[in-house]
Amino acid sequence: MLKFTFRGVRGSIASPGPNTVKYGGNTTCIEVRAGNELIILDAGTGIFPLSQTLSPEFPLTCHIFISHTHWDHIQGLPFFIPMFVSGNRVKIYGGQDPVTDKGVQEALSRQLEYAFFPIREAELSAELEYISLSENQVVNIGDAQVTSVLMNHPAINYGYKVTCGDKSLFFTGDHEWPPNIYQPDDDDYQLFEDHIAQKRKSIIDAVSGVDVLIIDTAYTDDEYPAKKGWGHGSFSSSIAMARDAGVKHCFFTHHEPTRSDRDLEKAFHAAMDKHPGQPGDPKFYLAQETFTFEL
Amino acid sequence: MSELHQQLVQMVDKMPAFPGSVNRILQMTSSIDCAPKDLVQVIEHDPVMMAKILKLVNSAYFGLSREITSIKHGVVFVGLNTIKNLAISIATMGMLSKTGPAGLDMNSFLRHSLGTATVAKLLGKRLGVASDRATDYFVGGLLHDIGKVVFAQFMPQEMERALKRVEVENIPLPMAEMIEIGADHAQLGGMLVEKWQLPHALVTCIKEHHSQEWNDNTSEVLDCVVAANIIIKQIGFGCAGNLLEDRLPDHVAARFGMELAALRKSMGNLDEELEKANAFICI
Questions:
Q1: Which ipTM was obtained for this model?
Q2: For residues A23 and A262, is the Cβ–Cβ distance under 8 A?
């Protein structure tokens, strides 16, 4: 059994309010149930509403996979209630920062410094464990496997493939296909294009054939040129990736914080009109907070 | 050597880069509009920056599925911002002094490294190497003498004595280094980059560029670096403290189908290409 629930679908900053009631204002967090295991993808503010539902399962063991340590993906961690209750086990996985050479532990321990939060890491009652992942590492969790795939973002960002039996999903975290830093008439343009094609192939190969793709789709095609290099995808790039990887279902997420429910739906329909359905196309959806999908 | 090697490996992590690139990186990255290709170009022309960044992108966390041999590949593989921040973190370590404590003129050394890189790439292209592989030839030339900077920086007195011996006794630098330090710069550089898991072809270039057993352990890129090293010394573009050599090793000559003088002549005037390299020497 593999099912998931969106607990936060917003990018960059939480954006509650009357304009985001339908799709939700919390930042990225996905609750995944794989057999008897609880796997949580990212710890944005959406992890707080999730954590409020978990007390019936105490003492619990859960596995939190952090795509990258930008705020909107870690900000809910200090409010993850199971960490305050003894008997619970919380395992946190993520990449190593090559610039500071620090592991994923930093994401939590720095937020729990005196100036930022009243409780220190040492005072958390649950059993905590940190695991730094390398690229293409497979983590076995009960009947499930989670594989890290290096994506492209202005920080080391792992996408995660979660497989359980014959079901699978892939979550990109934040991702933009690397833009070419050269102009077409530069000597190095083609060489750089070749590197990009190689990177694209390695990611598509990793995603290929999953049942569900959950993908960063921050921008409309009109918005993207002004945001190129910021590390996020657009409706067109997400649709292309879903088609190339041959997935069955594709959920657009990381909604722009300024986009109202109405504008989000308008953007979605415009993208669908721009890319009319083809035979074998995935089903496309807007990720919506509290929505559950069972594979 | 192993104990010495261990000490040097630890110290190298703190080794700063060349002044020109440190200044440029700090200046360029103070603007949010810093052009990525300019940043990449600066990194590609500094042996220390290049070696350190290749070390990180080839580390066990990332490099297991492929070898990253160039900064451009690194940019696509781990992301532009990560490469940029790695460069900034190296730049903030300070900079090598223009005249190293061992008396090795760092501008002259850098000129020699860049010159060797430029000529090695031209020689590679001449042998029909595709443009995506030609970069490896440039990197091989750029890094071939990296062991010298490490000696100069961390064993300045011994290195100074070795350089003196070259001058007074007219012996090759690797021999003088063996006498004074117990290891030569090719061995040390080779061991460093091997430990850093840099691509095998690059390790060989650094480790074997003075080897007497070339015939058994040769490759096209190594032969190009060996030839480029000899040519650039003859031209007198920079200096890295070693003696001039007046002939190519036999198998290198055989690869190009000609001896040193003919090869040099056949390459025509290199001034324009070398002038591009000059632009990256100290500002």
A1: 0.93
A2: no
